[in-house]
UniProtKB/TrEMBL annotation, chains A, B:
Entry superkingdom: Bacteria
Lineage: Bacteria, Pseudomonadati, Bacteroidota, Flavobacteriia, Flavobacteriales
Native organism: Kaistella carnis
One GO term of the biological process aspect: lysine biosynthetic process via diaminopimelate
InterPro entries listed in its UniProt record: DapB_N, GlycerAld/Erythrose_P_DH, GlycerAld_3-P_DH_cat, GlycerAld_3-P_DH_NAD(P)-bd, Glyceraldehyde-3-P_DH_2_arc, NAD(P)-bd_dom_sf
Protein name: Type II glyceraldehyde-3-phosphate dehydrogenase
Residues that bind NAD(+): 33, 301
Keywords of this entry: NAD, NADP, Nucleotide-binding, Oxidoreductase
Active-site annotation: 140 (nucleophile)
Keyword NADP: yes
Record-listed E.C. numbers: 1.2.1.59
Gene Ontology annotations for the cellular component aspect, listed alphabetically: cytoplasm
Residue runs in coiled coils: none
Length: 337, 337
């Protein structure tokens, strides 16, 4: 049983905390943040031990009636590994402390690859993360790219892939803070950053991405044109994707015609926050033309990295050396099937 | 001087009427519709002769104080060619009448290719439309595809092209009638209809499209991955695109970072309705990698077909047998340079 600490109780952090709490081979020691409003009350409600990241935060938390167990250093002293889900500039400072104290740590996809020297995607490179001191779980979009292209690569089908990424403008709960409205905003450069980011996990992938922000908050939508190593059939491609346990086929003809209908289905399923840990890929839209493959899928930007983070904890701590076993265990705990 | 009639004074029709009126080799005999509200007042303001499409419309128009010159048959008797910009089901009925009366006609991209047996895009196939009885000006998205790919084809660069089309959800003036909000809605099938539609003009084009509706009303945005016949340079590609007079290079680094900023620039330029007749292609975003080409551009769904329609009139009536001369004349009249 490994002791895990969570620093940064935001949209990713609160989900990671719940996911750690759902595992039987790791113990959530506590969550650490600076917030003292309704957001941290969610952790109070769940009886998580709460640590204050700064002296100021400790005071405002206590003023708000929150029972504070200790400060960030107290938390660090009790854990085998920290999952850092803080915003970019804060994570960079925290990482120095983890390194000084010799604590294993995981950062999220907003950080640079160089921060850890290893970037993680469970189905692609779990083994290379075994017993490392640190890794970075790549971002939502990059995770989806790696899952899908790794499946094609393992089946010997992938030559190269070119993707257009339609990105949600901002996170749902933050959309009052400013998003975009009645327009689209392309990323300045081709390739957009997600293609090179996927190569930080798998340098062999021949992948080029373009990206554009659209005025919606629910999830991302990717369109892919893939050159295959040989002419093949739709069935063979579907079989390749089915080897991934985190790609879910959806049917346009069953009314799943859009990001919002997919979101509602996941809420119907009782997933917390309607979280979709899987890549939701349209089976009936998928098209094979000779040695070319075309498909589209939806990515939940808040949820897809949660199972990846749990697997990364197992890899770094070495509590499970078999990638497939960790993935299966995580999937079962989160209701992915 | 050829006499031209316009039937269907909607978002396309009102623009076509103004464009015909701006030519010195054709005469706008009148516009014909059923509407009697603020929309037809625009034609009144411009002193266009107004014809009523039905007896009921004639009555409501007269009740609204509109001076009605005659009915649709009266208009047909006076013209050499009709441009039909009515909605789909109405155009199909009208076409029967044009054929019975032996009047040349042009329909818009919403109609089927079979309606006319010829589909038109000025820079691609003006010559094949010369003195025909009818043609169809292809839709906004298809027009943009043909302009860009024809330029690459003429330069000997185009092998095949794969595009992802982000479509505006509805026309700006109709967005209160229902659009989409905070979601994206893919077209069910790959290829989406625009690729095959482009092949109705140029069957040799190897083009496959995917399309998705996004919650905005300003314009479409296309991302293209093109396989070239050989490795080349960005400069050679730009030179190919420059051969088209209806592709405008825009610079992301000059603040043109989105559909709305581009729209505002065209309004600044004093274009009616901010109309963008050109394909607005990001020069600095465009990327060549070996024998692959990546670029993105914006398409004004209401305006791009207007110059095409003027050229189609010249081709069908035979008043100009040289495509380049017609295109140049149209461009000058509309301020395209």
């Amino acid at each position: 049983m490994k002791n895990i600490g969570l620093i940064g109780y935001g949209v990713i952090g609160k989900r990671v905390a719940d996911a750690i709490n759902a595992q039987d081979d790791m113990n959530l020691v506590g969550v650490c943040d600076v917030i003292s409003d309704w957001r941290i009350q969610n952790a109070v409600r769940k009886n998580y031990n709460i640590y204050a990241a700064t002296p100021d935060a400790e005071k405002t938390m206590k003023d708000a009636g929150i029972s504070v167990v200790g400060n960030m250093m107290d938390l660090l002293d009790k854990v085998d590994l920290i999952v850092d889900c803080t915003p970019k500039n804060i994570a960079a400072q925290n990482v120095k402390i983890y390194k000084e104290k010799g604590i294993k740590f995981i950062v999220q996809g907003g950080e640079k690859h160089e921060t850890t020297g290893h970037s993680f995607s469970a189905e692609n490179n779990y083994n290379s993360a075994l017993n490392l001191d640190a890794t970075r779980v790549v971002s939502c979009n990059t995770t989806s790219i790696l899952r899908t292209l790794t499946a094609l690569k393992k089946a010997g089908l992938l030559d190269y892939a070119r993707g257009t990424l339609l990105r949600r403008a901002t996170d749902p709960w933050e959309s009052h803070l400013g998003g975009i409205m009645n327009t689209m905003v392309p990323e300045r450069d081709i390739p957009s950053h997600q293609g090179p980011d996927a190569q930080s996990v798998d340098p062999d992938l021949d992948v080029i991405t373009s990206a554009v922000k659209v005025p919606e908050t629910l999830s991302h939508l990717h369109y892919w044109n893939v050159k295959l190593k040989k002419p093949t059939t739709k069935e063979e491609v579907l079989n390749a994707f089915k080897k991934s346990t985190r790609i879910k086929f959806i049917q346009y003809d069953q009314g799943l015609v859009s990001n919002n209908t997919i979101k509602e289905m996941y809420l119907d399923m009782g997933r917390p926050w309607g979280d979709m840990y899987e890549v939701a890929l349209w089976e009936d839209m998928l098209k094979v033309v000779g040695d070319e493959l075309f498909y589209a899928y939806v990515v939940d930007n808040q949820a897809i990295v949660i199972p990846e983070t749990i697997d990364a904890i197992r890899a770094l701590t070495g509590i499970e050396t078999d990638a497939a076993k960790s993935i299966a265990k995580t999937n079962k705990s989160l209701g992915i099937n």
